[in-house]
Amino acid sequence: MRAILGSLAIVLMIGTTSGCSMLTGLSAYNECPTSQCDASVTPQPDSGAPIGRPDATTGESGTPSEGGESSVVADGGAEGGDDAAGDALEPGDAAEAGEVCDGADSIENCGSCGNACTTSVANAQPVCTSGVCSFSCAVGYGLCDGGACVELTTPANCGSCANACTGTAVCAAGDAGTYACVSVCPSATPTNCSDSCVDLTSDPKNCIACGNTCTTSVANASAACANSACTFTCNTGLSACNGACVNTQTSATYCGSCTATPCATSVANATATCSGGSCSFSCNSGYAACNGGCADFSNDDNNCGSCGATCSGTCSAGVCAIPFGYTPAHFTPSSYTPPAGATTNCNATYSSTSHTFTTGSCTGTAPIVHSGVSQTGGPNVDILVFNSLTIASGSTLTLVGTSPVIIAVYGNVVIDGTISANASGTTPGAGGDNATYCGSGAAGTAGVNGTGGAGGGGKAVAGGKGGAADGSSSAAGGTMNSAQLAGGCAGGTGGPSFGGVAYPGGGAGGAGGGAVEIAAAGTITGTTGLVTSNGAAGSPGSTGTAGAGGQNDSGGGGGGSGGEVVLYGAQTALSGVTVTANGGVGGQAAGTLGTLANAGGVAGTNNGTTQSAPGNATNLTVQNADGAGGGGAYGYVVINFE
User: Fold this and answer.
1) Helix (H, G, I), strand (E, B) or coil at 399
2) pLDDT at 592
3) Residue 235 CA neighbour count, 13 Å, CB half
4) Regarding predicted confidence, which is higher, 125 or 601?
């Protein structure tokens, strides 16, 4: 920024800020909100002085006139102006459709979209420098004391402030924008108007006649005189197009030049725009650029929530809601509302006792938990409501606690990790070992010459029998129990040693697997997934302090039964996901020499396709031999695809 006449005074002013959204495909520009921005102006290296004298007929810029360089100061004043198509905005004016702003160094968008620079200083024009509004004095004027732009062609201020001509001298323009006191007006400015030498063909203060001052109502322009006729010249960075001053780099009406065809677009829900002098388009409010078009991610089934995200149900508020096309067992889908966002993983443990995730959490949107929901003919359940659910490979959602768990998903389910309601030792899975709904295995009995093993827990079938001791009767396994959504049952405890408290008790029975139902309005798929509710193995019997078997040792515990896995989905087959509800094996027991030699019963297995009944423990009738536990029964695997 240059100032030849007088000192340069600059005071910075902070402009009003306003948000602008990034326009896809035009990374260097920002789309202006409605009623905030207009054409973007790129300042010239000079201070913002008018771009020469325009032709009187066309208003186009011509050769710069003689006159002083402008001075620049900051200005916070606002003055009105007549808006024309493509004009910079005064505060509160509406933007021309299709124009963008670059948010820096333009008088319409100084530092931010919609922050238009104006000035109330006479004989000055607004300018924007480094995102800060200021003003510059018009050609032939300089900034003098008091912050006013004073004409430098008068005898009182000839060439600079307070440089007065004495005697009969008059003020005349010289070379390179200088002024000097002379006795006779030179040929370049031959007319003496109030002791100022002027050219009546180009002086806007004395156009064709002394005192005939030119004015203009054109926004972003200064009055000018050309060929003895009043006209206007556009501010820095703007071009005169059909009587208005516009930025041909951003005006959709005059994109690239004043003779350009106005920008248009065939893209639906979009507005034609201009950037860098080339036509483009911007998506209307509420729409976003997507695959060459504009989409409403809130309700577009082909772009639900994001570009390219298809929805086989109904897209609402950017969330794909797939209606349940069937009625799953144990809960009513219409009674619950899913959360707005998807759940991408739950690497965590959920307790249906505390009704919280005790460790870990869900990535994305957490499920809505409904606890203690009554179930006809069965125990109360906890319902975890999801919009959609993906369990990533290597992640495990573990379900524990006193109640079965229903995972209600109002979309699709992808299981590449594990959902586990397994029992562990004497701790059941979610909803397991409920005495009201269980067929637990019978405990083993004590004997003088050997102790009996316990029976395995029952579920879909009866559990295996425990081993007999020295001819004693074997312990019965638990019987088949309710098919309602309920967990598995514990195996019995092995018979204690004959020696009493000084010797070990029988092996503990394994706990029953839990109960989990996954009901999806969409599909249930996966590549490496596992859903499981297995019972735990019975603990082995122990040898007494004498270490010789028989009356000093104890029997093995029975295996817990598998629980229940129920899958519902809108599909015809399940692939890539393994489902199991297996029982636990029976605990071993000591043989005649006090070693753990007698085998427990094998576990019952169920993977939804094939079942294997639980086994009975080895039934020895040898004196001083102890009985092993019976195997736990398999549980229910129910797969209902609609």
Assistant:
1) strand
2) 60
3) 30
4) 601
Write phi, then psi, for 163 (nearest 5 degrees): -85, 90
Closest among 465, 557, 464, 463 to 510, alpha carbons compared: 557
Contact partners, residue 579, CB within 8 Å, separation at least 6: 530, 531, 532, 565, 567, 607, 608, 637, 639
- Rounded to an integer, the average pLDDT of 351-377 is 94
Query: In this structure, are strands 124-129 and 72-73 parallel, antiparallel, or unpaired?
Result: unpaired
Distances (CA, A) of 631 to 25, 155, 221, 250, 606: 67, 118, 96, 80, 14
Over residues 399-426, the mean pLDDT reads 96
DSSP per-residue string spanning 97-109? TTBEE-SSS-SSS
* 269-310 confidence digits (pLDDT tens): 999 999 889 999 999 999 999 999 999 998 899 998 889 888
Model confidence pLDDT, tens digit, residues 445-501: 877 677 888 999 999 999 999 988 765 678 899 898 877 899 999 999 998 876 555
Range with the lowest mean pLDDT among 181-190, 268-277, 555-564, 589-598? 589-598
Q: At 587, phi and psi to the nearest 5?
A: -75, 145
Rounded Cα distance, 341 and 306, in Å: 12
Q: Which of 287, 256, 297, 258 is nearest to 273 (CA)?
A: 256
**pLDDT on residue 589:** 83
d(CA 52, CA 183): 29
HSE-CB for 378 with a 13 A CA cutoff: 24
Kindly give, in sequence order, each residue whose CB lies less than 8 Å from that of residue 254, ignoring residues fewer than 6 positions away.
Answer: 86, 239, 241, 246, 248, 260, 262
CA torsion through residues 149, 155, 159, 164, sign? negative
* pTM, two decimal places: 0.57
**C-alpha span between 221 and 301 (Å, rounded):** 50
pLDDT digits 0-9 by tens, 319-346? 777 788 888 989 999 899 888 788 999 9
Contacts of 347 by beta carbon, 8 Å cutoff, 6+ apart: 360, 363, 392, 395, 396, 397, 417
Q: Which residues of 530-554 are buried (b: 16+ CB within 10 A; e: fewer)?
A: bbbbbbbbbbbbbbbeeeebbbbbb
Q: Which two tokens stand for residue 553?
A: 């040792």
Q: Tokens 């100061």: give the residue.
A: 73
Distance between CA 365 and CA 345 in Å, rounded?
A: 9
Query: Residue 159 is encoded by which pair of tokens?
Result: 């060439």
Find, among 152, 132, 141, the residue nearest to 75 by Cα.
132
Yes or no: say if 56 and 231 are a contact pair by the CB < 8 Å rule. yes
- Bridge partners for 369 per DSSP: 384
Tokens of 627: 């009985």
